[in-house]
Amino acid sequence: MSSADSPQEEYLAPGHFVDSDSPEVQGFARRVVGGETDPIAMAVRLFEAVRDEIWYDPFGLTTDPAAYRASAVAAGGSNWCVPKAVLLTAAARAVGIPARLGFADVRNHLNTPRLRERMGGADLFVYHGYTDLLLDGRWVKATPAFNAELCARFEVDPIAFDGRNDALMHEYASGGEQYMEYVNDRGVHTDLPLDEILATFREYYGEAMFAADHSGPAPAGADAFTAPAAAEC
What we know:
With 233 residues, the chain is α+β, with helices and mostly antiparallel strands. It has helices spanning 23-33, 39-53, 70-74, 81-94, 113-118, 148-153, 194-205; strands at 55-56, 78-79, 99-108, 124-135, 138-142, 180-189. It has a 4-stranded antiparallel β-sheet with strand order 5-4-3-6. Strands 1-2 form a two-stranded parallel sheet. β1, α3 and β2 form a beta-alpha-beta unit. α1 (23-33) crosses α4 (81-94) and α2 runs antiparallel to α4.
């Protein structure tokens, strides 16, 4: 785990999973920021691109480490919160914005029966991923997990990021129901602690959580999280 007073260079350097020097991440970042040079404006553009160009799919969990590299995430059409945070972190570093990965356990009050079954009936999502960006001299948190089209299905506004304030999760749904709550902070990391995350998933959910592994059978059924065919990996 990286401490808050680590040198800034640590959060600009490429990592194994946060491979910000890869052609895929470099190309993604350059395309998204275009001619923009202001760090805050670049961060907002990158956040919105990762949020909306990659469909949030909680059934895309895999144990293949290669799938968690930002370069692989950039090439796919759908993924879940942790790989999306890895991509945003890498893309930020690619344009010179110090960035690190953050994790927290969140309780989700808008779920689907299919996902709840996969999670063994739990509604606590451990190791929810977000990106911590150093902008204008301060760390700002942002989670690019839920794309706008998916949010419309759940009748909530997509989370907005202005580069100055934390953008973590919707607190309430459009009808006033509680949407998500953060219940445990798991700190920040320079690169992805994949082994730790997968071990914790096994502890909380068991092997059934990995039934959607790309090396095995596809998850059965469909629900509100199911991406349009064009968005699938």
